[in-house]
Amino acid sequence: MKNTTFSFLMKYVFKKWYWVIGSVFFSALTVAGSLFIPKFTGKGVDMVIEKGNVDFFSLKQIIVYILILIGVTIVSQLLLSLINNRLTAGVVSEIRKDAMQKIHRLPISYVDSHPQGDLVSRMIADVETLSDGLLMGFTQFFTGVLTILGTLILMVIMDWRITVVVVFVTPLSFFVAGFVSKRTYSLFQKQTEARSTQVSFINEMVSNQKVVRAFGKEEENIEKFEKMNRALKDASLKATFYSSLTNPSTRFVNALVYAGVAIFGAMAIVTKGLLSIGELTVFLSYANQYTKPFNEISGVITEFQNALACADRIREFLNEKEEAQTETNESAAKIDEFKNLEFRNVYFSYTEKQKLIEDFSLKVEKGLRVAIVGPTGCGKTTLINLIMRFYDVNAGEILMNGINIQKFDRKDYRDNFGMVLQETWLRKGSVRDNITLGRDISDEEVINACRECHAHRFIERMKDGYNTQISEDGGNLSNGQKQLLCISRVMIMNPPILILDEATSSIDTRTELKVQDAFAKLMKGKTSFIVAHRLSTIKNADVILVMKDGNIIEQGSHEELIKAGGFYKELYMSQWANEEESE
Least enclosed by CB within 10 Å: which of 96, 417, 435, 522? Predict the structure, then answer.
């Protein structure tokens, strides 16, 4: 799993290959500077021969060389830091861009079946954690590896026997780092999952705060949150605890290496005279530099386990099966003019265990007003989902103008529809922008459309009229006003097919009559699908489809269905009786 995730990550990294080359180059330059400084330091120590016998002239030259190397090292480290930041930011930017594009290509079924907070967590929190891990990796990994290789080569050149001592103890660092990292990966996975669950819950509670308070669920939600918070705390503490073992463990190994070099180096000076004092100083410095990267790399590995756990969730999301598309725009069928829409022996269910629509057939000609009624769960909204191709049928086919809708480009196909749903969709921006959705539409057209659906009057009363800024999801508007804006949006589009799913459910009775009149004008010459619970609103429909358990059990005009005395009459009379009682 980790290898697959790592290769997925490297695919993004090597898209920025020029930054990778720059990072390696300046890492090498930084390491070279830091390795040559001890060389000159050792020579300087050997020039302090004895009391009153110091080669000051040579020392001055050495100090100048050391200062130059320090300057080069500082500049290269600065450039390395800038390059690594650019590289990390570029990789993260590419991943987030692909994630956003992926959301628009995923089937609606995926979005419906996954918590919004989980998707947000993958795109924001997980990518941010990945960014931190990558930045640490690029900053310390290359320099660490090059430092190990450089010091090893220089130590072998100076004295291979003492180098053997260093290399002999070194595998302990790998063993410790590997032992810890294997256990931290699964812990960081649990931490990431716990955080995602908490983010999903917070997102749901914040966006539905009015409902929470209306039903008095504050205390219950606080208890749920505390349970999730404890789970996240436990997962985080375990992951942090085990990952924190790496540094002190490798430091202990480093201390053993340093002590070994000091002992064997001192013996080499005293017994055999193989090293000078200055060379032993250099050797000790190299031993310290050699072991230090193991601390850093082990820290990087630990942090990288967290980053990989997050990258795995991102990879899983980006590898989800996408919505089926037509192969190319050239191969897609074209829609010149809408003529009819037909369901032919359609079977569909959201899950295999629960059947919904079975062997459903229907043909709707241009200009018909089709009302769809029935009890909750009978398949009314499902029918709309299939018409819009939010879901594809399991068997059978849906045809437009005699052509299977799966042969059309989704965007071209959906451009023929205008939808007004029970749930409004508004975003932060001006009233005008929410109506036009960024299309180039004149003010006159916007005002005319708003007048038609009786939204103009309340818009004019707002502080800045059509330029009034509304909050996220239209929070500073009433439900009825939000619905009227959505209706205005469809009116201005003037599509050949209308879908009205409880479109007037949030509007008072007086305004509803006006809007129904506006819809009547709008629907002239157009095909309309009207989903309604209040049967009094669809009396004028050309055809009323009565659905039950995914099947059409009755079909006809209002008068015909009342005369038939079937299920529709029962529904209508029960609603009429309820309205009489409420009055």
Answer: 96
Other CB atoms within 10 A of residue 525 CB: 8
Q: Is 238 helix (H, G, I), strand (E, B) or coil?
A: helix
Of the two residues 547 and 332, the one the predictor is more confident about is 547
* Mean pLDDT score across all residues of the chain: 79
What pLDDT score does 579 carry? 46
Residue 288 near residue 282 (C-beta atoms within 8 A): no
Are the CB atoms for 370 and 546 separated by under 8 Å? Answer: no
3-state helix, strand, coil in the chain (%, to 5): 65, 10, 20
Amino acid sitting at position 307:
A
Number of H helices, E strands in the chain: 21, 14
Signed CA dihedral, 249, 250, 255, 260: sign only: positive
DSSP H/E element including 55: none
**φ and ψ at residue 423, rounded to 5 degrees:** -90, 120
- Superfamily grouping for domain 367-392+407-582: P-loop containing nucleotide triphosphate hydrolases (3.40.50.300)
Q: Which amino acid is at 306?
A: N
* Calpha distance 445→310 (Å, rounded): 49
Q: What is the dihedral of CA 280, 281, 282, 283, to 10 degrees?
A: 50
**Helix/strand/coil for 50:** strand
Residues contacting 51, CB < 8 A, separation 6+? none
Band (pLDDT 50/70/90 cuts) for residue 142 is confident
Q: Report whether pLDDT(299) > 70.
A: no
The pLDDT of residue 334: 65
| Phi, psi (deg, nearest 5) at residue 492 | -75, -25
Amino acid at 214: A
The CA distance from 355 to 269, in Å, is: 87
**Whole-Å CA distances, 244 to 21, 204, 253, 299, 300:** 32, 34, 15, 8, 12
Query: So what's the pLDDT on residue 182?
Result: 67
Residue type, 539: K
Average pLDDT (224-231) is: 88
What distance in Å separates the CA atoms of residue 357 and residue 372, rounded to the nearest whole number? Answer: 14
Q: What is the pLDDT of residues 65-112, one digit of tens each?
A: 888 888 888 998 899 888 888 888 888 888 888 888 888 888 888 887
Burial of 354 from C-beta contacts in 10 A (0-12 / 13-18 / 19+) = exposed
Measured in degrees and rounded to the nearest 5, phi and psi for residue 397 equal -155, 155
CA dist 12 → 122, 143, 168 (Å): 17, 21, 37
User: How far is 376 from 370, CA to CA, in rounded Å?
Assistant: 18
Return the closest-CA partner of residue 542 out of 561, 565, 567: 561
Where in the chain are the domains? 95-318, 367-392+407-582
* Topology at the third CATH level for domain 95-318: ABC transporter transmembrane region fold (1.20.1560)
Nearest to 200 by CA among 318, 121, 109: 121
